[in-house]
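Weekend entry, working from home. Most of the wet-lab plans are on hold until the incubator is repaired, so I used the time to fold the two sequences that have been sitting in the queue since the last round of cloning. Logging both here for the record. First:
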Amino acid sequence: MKFSVHRAAFLQYLNTAQTAISGKTTLEILTGVKLNLSADALTITGSNSDISIETILSIADEDAQLTIEEPGSVVLPARFFGEIVKRLPEDTFTLTVNDRFQTTIVSGSSEFTINGVESEAYPHLPEIDSKDQLKIPGDLLKQIIDQTVIATSKQENRPMLTGIHLTINESELTAVATDSHRLSQRKATLENNATGNYDILVPGDSLSKLSKMLGETQEDVELQISENQVLFILDHTSFYSRLLEGQYPNTTQLIPNSASTTVEIDAHSLLRSIERASLLSHEGHNNVVRLVVDPAANTATIFGNSPEIGNVEEVLDFNQIEGDELEISFNPDYMKDALHAFGQSEVKLNFTLPLRPFTIVPSEDDGSFIQLITPVRTA
């Protein structure tokens, strides 16, 4: 096996594949990256059993300057190989693998030799048998992931809650995540797709990695779904993820359909106020911020305190308040995550009772995005 390639272009593909590689694996070979060289392309694969990423560098890519002399394949230790390539002195390098899988990397006056292993032992990628072609713009998919993954659970004792529940009914996509303390739901219409119904649960960690790969691309991402795997295809890269098993909780009944108190406010402004209040709340035994809404006095005030340090009080600058007087306490970190997802938009906070979950939606609410937070009992 032997090829030469432009170092920076190769690194982009290598880093993409290495996104899937983890040091915590029971299979030693999965700490490595697989290189498979054919007559017209170099395929780079990384996997951690839960996700697998395959990316293809073609000789047609002029920026890559890929020159193929002898096809073959090898698995190289991912961490060392990546660090070596990053530090090579020239813009291009040549990689050669001998019959014993010893791999030589030459760039300018620098030469490295590392031990590779035969690729036959590397696990095969999952086979996805899907007839339907589902497509979604990359920037929309990234937005959906980023807005919902924040509510996934980090506790492995309830594995279903570590995932994002995706349902597709005809052309309507709904993504839901909850850790039982908060919930995020996003809906979107998929244009020009084959009709069909799907109900899958994708690990949040998988989708977080996919989101980072998507960047700001507006190109369509193709989805293929099988019984226990989902495949996302974007340009020259295939991203495989296992699916979680089990029945996801019915979350629709958790979302209130009415409100006794509402506050309309700029999301970024509220976020900054919550950040200031949480400076003190984080130092206390209970990480809690209190909100007092008084429509009669036309005021809304945030309170944070730490018995050891002091307290903070801030009157909010809002657009509109309606309804009943209310005092409610909540985890500021949940609120900050939720407000980050709205960016610079105006939002409406809908409250029912002090100990009932409240929702945050865009002021121009069309039902496409909703965040729900469960308050904290302080008495």
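Second, folded right after the first finished:
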Amino acid sequence: MVSSSAPAPSSTAPLDAAALRADFSILGQRVNGERLVYLDSGATSQKPQAVIDAEVDFLTRANSAVHRGAHTLAAEATELFEDARATVAGFVGARPEQLVWTSGATAGLNLVAYAIGNASLGRGAPASARFALQPGDEIVITETEHHANLIPWQELAARTGAVLRHIPVNDDGTLDTDAAATLVGERTRIVAFTHVSNVLGIVNPVAELVALAHDVGAVTVLDACQSAPHLPLDLPALGVDLAVFSGHKMLGPYGVGGLYGRADVLEALPPFLTGGSMITTVTLDEAAYLPPPQRFEAGTQPVSQAIGLAAAVRYLDGVGMGAVHGHEKALEARMGEGLRSIPGVRLLGDAPGAERVGLWAFDVDGVHAHDVGQFLDARGVAVRVGHHCAQPLHRRFGLTASVRASSSLYNTADDVDVFLDALSGVRAFFGAGA
């Protein structure tokens, strides 16, 4: 059996971050002689021992190829792999057949974009024609997108002659929904947008965007990387057609993620990657493909990683996603208040009343983001610096880089206070202000 340090399921008990930290041994170390304050979970989260144990247990007890053998280990590996699919699918409100394993959200978004490109070339079953793009058709994204939800659509537009348009953001970081209503029109075929901006931390109006898209028959694609670890998530209830998320941002391993799709959408999409394990019959001239999700899972799959991700979502479920969100909301409020009180700090996406996750990006007047990050690191505080794979959004706010502090369920109020105390000394240290 896989050992587990996951808490017992609880939907009402408040989250005790100090107690949970015992499950994350990496948080007990010292960095540069200081207690580690890890505020970079937006880039990658730490892993509880239950996740590490799940992967190790599989690799030492049941390691074998899945869906490819009749011997005992192969059968057990396949069962564990498909059980993991059911567990992770359930975490986002989906059925197992609606979850495609990918290597991460980037792979999932590229899968969708290239599959639609294949449909545009006439590939796939007759139902695939619904996705075919013609010159002049439109793909609508937002100005807040991570490059992973921008560049695949740029490439698809270049291959098909479609036009890429974007919904702008207001000065406070919220989406310009009036502009969205104008941009999404009769030529719109795809609306792709992030659930939560990885720079701004603001939860976007999913229902409004989905309604605009579906009113004109467009397909919706949701980037849920920054929402899946932090908010209760029911993808079917959100009404999106397709969605992606990454395991390493939600306490899980690297190299695994999920692509959710409505059953009719996945059934109609042609494959992107082709090869073994995604076919029914093959001749030297042609091939017939399996139904979803296997149609999109050619080649060797991330088996131990999928099993580790299932352990991660069991851990999150044990804590309770409502408790996670409530805890991180309190950290976000404490962090935001503290950041606003430090002279020379400019917050990005400081929209009063906006729904948020526990993430803030900011600029320090007179000090480059990389220098801020190194100063904080010397004091044991780990944050993200740079453009966070969102150059257009930074350009919108007149920046090339920012500092981002992002929390998770294992962070405490003391973590926030240590971070704020360290940050308050940055400008004086670099001679940029008191």
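Plan for Monday: verify the second prediction. Residues 17-48+320-429 form a domain with the Aspartate Aminotransferase, domain 1 fold (CATH 3.90.1150.10).
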